[in-house]
Design a protein that fits this description.
5-stranded parallel beta sheet, 34 helices, 7-stranded mixed beta sheet, Aspartate Aminotransferase, domain 1, about 45% helix, transferase, alpha/beta
Length: about 900
């Protein structure tokens, strides 16, 4: 037998449900290492080593708890290993542990146990090589070990070679254990509730997991909509179902009862897909497989595959289709060699044979979009094949008419500014709070949005305000509370429309904590709240505070101080644009528009389709569309697991930098304390997820702004180089590490669902090497040679104002961007002015007007828009900006300025 390998690093944070997958895998790996050492050693020495190695016992205790929540090995398996070790049967224990570790490694990244229990076999892992996709089914009921063996045996007997999938049971006795299971085991796709379960767990759980379970229960606590004469046990069942559905909406819930099943069926319809009698094992089995087949269905991707396999004659406008112009060529066959023949076989401009038309879908694309709406919690979803820039223009054009006022975050993506130009809407720019120390912006506080709405009301122009447009999350990871923003805005103007640019937040819908801050989840909750009797009572009470008896509104200070409650008559009209390709699986430019609009049919459907026709190509890329379809399948079946791991790995990265002696001397991880002003942080925690999922849950439930934990912003001032140099010369050129955004003194690292533990480890290794390099360079610097003086970064400029000729009035900020844009497109109306000359004009009292958009990257938003007065603050900011890319500015000719005449 070979010598034991080097001791693995045991990373364990059992307080975090999101890291249980890692703790579980590491614990099994450590046991294998430690017990292998015992098996190879002298028996007496091994006994002493076992007694001294407390980590073995901690690992066994942790696995005895956590294995309840996974199918396969089970607690008895772990207990047996402990008994073998106590009896000195080290080799037998090692064999059992080795089988588990080999299974986990063979499964790859999924990290879950997939063993099968067979009470009539000595092999607990029979059927392990079955290649079919697997999932797990949670059974909630008080059972004996014999009952559990019987249930598992019955499920095996019903398994057929014709089944497309296989599943295994996870059996827990209590409601608490059911919540723990769906929080820790992402492989659970269905849950069968049997009324015999108890309320509280007997497991020894961490404080964080216990608190998270309580938060999950409390989230759905409240009066049930059941008849008075229903039993308390029915209420318990309904409460558990509501909790599980809120945590994991993709879960399929079933009720298995005994007596009075007919009476229960009507009361349970909204919570459970079906109600079964206990003996209906076959019907349950078929239902489980059928439901997963619905999640697995990819109608458009399957149609593309079918088209690629069919022999067809091509007599349309694509020479590349079926590889016709490629495979017969002497010179470009390497295109097929590189991308593969399937890419060419799937290329077509046909909209028949099951492929459908994106502009007027009636078959496979229509169904694919309906499935996406289900997955993302929308009422309607539309695929977009040329990015979220186009998605934003579609929504704006559908909902905004000329001279409608749109309240829009000034540092939003440039597509929103361009949309204002295209639609003729009048932007009223909202200024986000600045983070001057790091040269980027945060988000727009709710009191600023409310104050601007109140200003329009005071001016008698509130009827002109049509839409509020905000970015959630911002590029740097600042996350709004959409529910609060929409509630309070609707309390001032109950017919507002909201557009949430969620380009970087597509993954948010697939984690129980992040989901609550997505636009669609917030819209659903808002609609539910508006229809409740409790909401109407609260609204009536607050109206007495906000209005005098004669109907006069209270002072603005009262409206700003109060957490405003919208009228029950308010309309929920919410749109979200999503860069699916940025954070989930999709080809480049694959995006979606999600809609939750109560007035869709009456007011929005026809204009939306016209706008969609305007901006959507008549020759959309079918590969992008099929990637959106199959990417939807992925997030419904494993999105929770992937997002859970993404957040955990990002937290591991930030912890590694904070704990490493060299790294923390060179780099600093920016936390919520750096990125969010104190008045917007209710919980006050710097990095909530680092302290446990329950702390993240509380922060995301209460704070006005939170930080997306998947994004790690590193402050690099102590390296002596700027962000752009650090990105290109050190990370990319030297080590091949790609990052998306820098500022003058920060670098943003983003994890995603494709991030692995190995890639995080590689990044940490690179950062250590760079830190050593920077310290060495500083140590060898000639101390008598002074360092070059650093040019201080001026404050980030707020939006100045529109010039009087483009402004509506002096008191409000909206302006006619469209008129200024088209005036600036005519050469005779503009002049080019160099920066120093323009500054001299401004200092002399002139107010030059920008003729176009000026957008530096970073920060990636227009610092000047058409019709805007060029301010000293903008020029000061631009003068010291050291970015390589500035759209709309020519350094040789200067700024485009509208002539006065």
């Amino acid at each position: 037998m070979s010598e034991p390998q080097a001791e693995p690093v045991l990373e364990r944070d059992p307080g975090m449900p999101s890291s249980t997958w890692r703790m579980r895998s590491d614990a099994w790996e450590y046991l294998r290492f430690a017990v292998k050492r015992l098996a190879l050693g002298d028996r007496s020495e091994a006994t002493e080593a076992l007694a001294a190695d407390s980590e073995i016992h901690r690992s066994l205790r942790a696995l005895e708890t956590v294995e309840m929540y996974w199918a396969g090995f089970g607690q008895r398996y772990v207990t047996t290993i402990g008994e073998m070790l106590a009896a000195g049967e080290y080799q037998a224990a090692l064999d059992r542990i080795g089988r588990v570790v080999n299974r986990l490694r063979a499964i790859g990244t999924s990290e879950e146990a997939t063993g099968e229990f067979d009470p009539d076999s000595d092999d607990e892992f029979a059927g392990d090589n079955d290649p079919r996709p697997r999932f797990e089914v949670l059974i909630v009921d008080e059972t004996t070990p014999a009952d559990r063996d019987t249930m598992r045996a019955e499920s095996l007997r019903m398994r057929s070679a014709a089944d497309a999938f296989v599943y295994e049971y996870v059996i827990v006795p209590s409601a608490d254990d059911a919540v723990a299971a769906v929080l820790t085991n992402p492989n659970i796709l269905a849950c069968v509730v049997r009324p015999g379960f108890s309320e509280r767990t007997k497991q020894t759980l961490s404080r964080d997991l216990r608190e998270t379970i309580e938060l999950a229960h409390a989230q759905t606590a409240g009066p049930q909509t059941t008849a008075r004469n229903q039993l308390a046990s029915v209420q318990r069942v309904l409460g558990l179902a509501d909790t599980l559905a809120a945590l994991r909406p993709e879960l399929d819930l079933y009720l298995m009862a005994g007596a009075h099943i007919e009476d229960l069926a009507g009361a349970m319809t909204k919570r459970f897909r079906r109600v079964f009698r206990r003996e209906d094992h076959l019907e349950l089995h078929l239902s489980l497989l059928r439901r997963v087949s619905h999640l697995y269905d990819t109608p458009f991707f399957s149609a593309i595959q079918d088209h690629a396999r069919r022999p067809v004659g091509v007599f349309h406008a694509l020479p590349v289709a079926r590889g016709g112009s490629v495979m017969s060529s002497k010179w470009i066959r390497d295109l097929a060699d590189f991308y593969g023949l399937n890419l060419l076989l799937a290329e077509t401009s046909a909209t028949s044979g099951g492929l459908d038309s994106l502009l007027a879908p009636v078959r496979t694309l229509k169904k694919a979009q309906e499935l996406a709406a289900r997955a993302y919690g929308a009422k309607h979803t539309f695929f977009v094949t040329n990015g979220t820039s186009t998605a934003n223009k579609v929504v704006h054009q559908a909902l905004v008419a000329p001279n409608d006022v749109v309240l829009v975050d000034r540092n939003c993506h440039k597509s929103h500014h361009h949309s204002m130009m295209l639609t003729g809407g009048r932007p009223a720019y909202l200024d986000a709070y600045p983070l001057n120390d790091f040269a980027f912006y945060g988000a727009v506080p709710i009191d600023r949005i409310k104050q601007l709405l109140l200003d329009y009301r005071a001016a008698g122009r509130l009827d002109e305000v049509r839409m509020v447009t905000l970015t959630n999350t911002t590029f740097d990871g600042i996350v709004y509370d959409p529910y609060r923003v929409m509630s309070e805005c609707l309390a001032i103007k109950p017919d507002l429309v909201f557009l949430w640019d969620e380009a970087w937040f597509a993954f948010g819908a697939f984690h129980p904590v992040t989901r609550r801050r997505t636009a669609m989840a917030s819209a659903k909750l808002l609609e539910q709240q508006l229809g409740s009797a409790a909401h109407e009572r609260a609204y009536r009470e607050q109206q007495e505070l906000l209005f005098a008896e004669d109907g006069t509104p209270a002072a603005d200070e009262v409206w700003l101080r109060e957490r405003l409650i919208p009228s029950p008559e308010a309309r929920v009209r919410v749109y979200a644009t999503q860069s699916t390709h940025k954070t989930l699986t999709a080809l480049r430019q694959g995006s979606m528009i999600h809609v939750w609009d109560q007035d869709w049919v009456r007011d929005a459907q026809d204009p939306f389709h016209e706008a969609y026709m305007t901006h959507t190509s008549t020759s959309p890329n079918y590969q992008i569309l099929s990637s959106l379809d199959i990417g939807r399948r992925q997030v419904e079946l494993e999105g929770f697991e992937l997002v859970q791991r993404q957040l955990d790995l990002a937290t591991s990265l930030s912890q590694a930098i904070a704990r490493h002696t060299l790294l923390r001397r060179t780099f600093r991880v920016l936390t919520a304390h750096d990125l969010i002003p104190e008045q917007y942080r209710g919980t006050g925690r710097a990095m909530p997820l680092r302290d446990g999922l329950s702390n993240m849950w509380e922060a995301w439930a209460t704070d006005e702004f939170v930080v997306d934990p998947s994004r790690i912003t590193i402050e690099i001032s102590r390296t002596g180089v700027d962000g752009d140099t650090f990105k290109h010369e050190h990370l990319m050129d030297r080590y091949g590490i790609q990052v998306n955004k820098t500022s003058r003194n920060t670098v943003l690292f983003m994890t995603n669902i494709g991030t692995s533990r190995s890639s995080v480890a590689y990044l940490i290794e690179v950062l250590v090497k760079l830190a050593e390099r920077f310290e060495e360079e500083q140590a060898q610097r000639d101390t008598e040679q002074p360092l070059p003086a650093e040019i201080p970064m001026p404050p980030l400029p707020d939006f100045s104002s529109f010039a009087p000729r483009y402004a509506t009035d002096e008191k409000l900020p909206d302006g006619d961007l469209r008129a200024a844009f088209f005036r600036g497109q005519r050469r005779g109306n503009i002049e080019y002015v160099l920066g120093d000359d323009l500054r001299a004009r401004v200092d002399a009292g002139e107010k030059p007007i920008s003729a176009g958009f000026v957008t530096p990257y970073p920060p990636g938003f227009p610092v000047l828009v058409p019709g805007q007065v060029v301010s000293p603050e903008v020029l000061a900011f631009m003068k010291v900006l050291d970015t390589r890319e500035i759209h709309g500015y020519d350094p040789l000719r200067g700024y485009r300025i509208i002539k006065e005449s």
